[in-house]
Amino acid sequence: SAVAAAALSFTVSAGAVAAACDDGEIVIKFSHVTNTDKHPKGIAASLLGQRVNDEMNGTACMEVFPNSTLYNDNQVLEAMLQGDVQLAAPSLSKFEQFTKQFRIFDLPFMFNDIAAVDAFQSSETGQAMKESMVRRGLLGLAFWHNGMKQMSANVPLESPSDANGLKFRVQNSDVLKAQMAALGGSPQPMAFSEVYGALQTGVVDGQENTWSNIYGKKFFEVQDGVTETNHGIIDYLLVTNVDWWEGLDEGVRTQLGTIIEEVSVARNAESTAVNASNKQAILDAGGVVRELTAEQREEWVTVMKPVWEQFKGDVGQENIDAAQAINA
Ligand code: LMR
């Protein structure tokens, strides 16, 4: 029965937690919202957990809670500030209440690809962004990549005018709301865990996301199709509570920091390939993918890119220029 299955899965995960953590170990809870397999974040989080549990056994243990099983993306940062969770990797769009600097990552057509995002983040400006919320209690440890966003809806999307009048789920970000408004759509902010149900029941008509999220949460099954716009990005900040991090013994912090750095470099190098395989998985499952000609894509650029003007003051013209120089 479903009840027995639920009980069993609870027992199994509780067992896994007990196995990972022994008395006296520092418990590191990592809460995230995506699936675990075939997902850039899911894979990275699992690998981080494995390495900590192997290499820091006796000192620290990590419990990874995927699929919003511990916290939703709109709750996790508050839980972190309360000390209830030590690691999370929300998308950069989810830090709206803490900093406006990350708005550059939400601006449509700002970065040509994830390599450009990586180069921007590696710059002095990008690295400083990890510490931009320290006075609010949050410290960024690493940027983690997902990939380029695509648009999907319950009607075919080819020209931007096809989006006119549709309700689009967005992450809770002012830039993304403005972007959907520029399309003549109605932006509906909601947590990631609610998107599938909202698409299925028609609470919203469409959404934007990466191939790995569209496949991983089966959005394509309740949409007419996915249009390959590559209009924006989803990228993450692996984040922790400043006080917790500063409170670790130096040796522990250094070892954990080194593992995080190695996992981040290794998995970031694979994120584009992981998304490509998710696109293929959608096609293999019979999902519809619409590719745009260069001329068609230019129409989306024309409609969406004026949004930059509204947020120039928040993100800084010099940062926009730096991102554009990287694209070139
Ligand atoms: C979303 O809310 O659509 C994404 O940020 C989810 C995620 O963590 O990839």
UniProtKB/TrEMBL annotation:
InterPro entries: DctP_fam, TRAP_DctP, TRAP_DctP_sf. It holds the Pfam family DctP. Belongs to the bacterial solute-binding protein 7 family. The keyword Zinc-finger does not apply. It comes from Ascidiaceihabitans donghaensis. The keyword Transport applies. This is C4-dicarboxylate-binding periplasmic protein DctP. PROSITE patterns: PROKAR_LIPOPROTEIN. Residues 1-18 form the signal peptide. PANTHER family: C4-DICARBOXYLATE-BINDING PROTEIN DCTB (PTHR33376:SF7), PTHR33376. GO terms for cellular component: outer membrane-bounded periplasmic space. One of its GO terms (biological process) is transmembrane transport.
